[in-house]
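Whether sequence alone determines local backbone shape is best considered at the level of individual chains. When preparing material for the folding task, we compiled for one chain both its residues and its backbone structure tokens. The sequence in question and its structure tokens are set out directly beneath this paragraph.
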Amino acid sequence: MFNYANSGVTVSSILDNRRATNDNLYPIKIRVTFQRIRKYYSTGKYLKSEAWEKLPETKSKKMLSIRFDIQNTFDIVKDTVQGLLYEGGFSFEALNSRLNKSPSDTLNAGFKIKIQALLDNEQVGTHLFYQDALKSVESYGGENISYTVVTVDWLKCYEKYMLKLGRAYTTIGMYCRAIRSIINEAKRAGIIKENQYPFGNGKYEIPTGTGRKLALTLQQIKSVASHSDGTETTEKYRDMWFFSYLCNGINFADMLTLKYSNIRNGEICFLRAKTTRTSKVKKEVCAILTPEMNAIIKKWGNKSQKPDEYIFKYLTGKETPFKEKDVIKSVTKLCNKRLKKIGTTLGIESLSTYTARHSYATVLKRSGANIAYISESLGHNDLKTTENYLASFERDERVKNASLLTNFGE
């Protein structure tokens, strides 16, 4: 029904009548022939022989839909073949490689392709996140979720399922954005139609978490930075938290991978790992190396201070990407455990490694610093991101200002 030929390669949609199902249905496949070798690629569709013969002239809505889906798969294979021919390197190995990087006919397969691509690109953190998202999706929908099943109602039911498990809206939103990413790939590949797309206005809207983000006052920061219970462990993690705060709110993953070569002209300059792969423009973040930061490096840092040496003594540079991720995760967990104890002692709720970044940004805002400077120092790509980031920290300020409305001076 659909045919293409060029430079000795032919692509055809065919009814593979070599073996029928119990219902006398045959699979419809895309056959590629090159140098007398034939390879077959599934469309996921099955028809009886008589239905296949009528398909080119059909006016039935159901059959037209099947024909449209077959053409989509045919076009994906044809376009891939054309690309390889244009590059002068057609082979079945190359064709299979490229097709395997395209979304398959199930959400599960799309996730697995994405996960493998992230692994190949050594994006370990994102790779692990997509693995967790897939486990969650499969725990709800099973291991063979057709794209056509993922409707607005399906997503709403998935959301309710996650809430019953006690998951926060922040987590639900993250996993739903992962699902949307996979479905966007399928949409671009022509596997699903526009009218099947379940996200957007009037359809399923991904929930946004409203978890509390705590920003400390200067007095609270001082109390944390000077706190001691007499143990080296508390002092070490306290100082690591304070370093993060002073170093533009640097996150622990970036902080633990800082090297002495990042110190230049009295500043620490680095690229945020979170945005390096996703941003076209690589924006370097620079933080003034304060006397307090120097003291922390002198106390807890590597003594050799060679340019290729990590500043802090947790990584060696010989770790695999997965091992590096494990080390950073372990250090962050231990630090948070110690910070929780410090917070309990000082009466500061939810003290964690994240609080350092939140506090850095908010202290500058409260002190009247230009928002463009705050945005640049945080490594954000636009001011809107910074504005949204800061907006969630100022409840205390709103409470204080609300009290002014009835301060009648009695």
User: Anything to note?
Assistant: The mean pLDDT is 87.
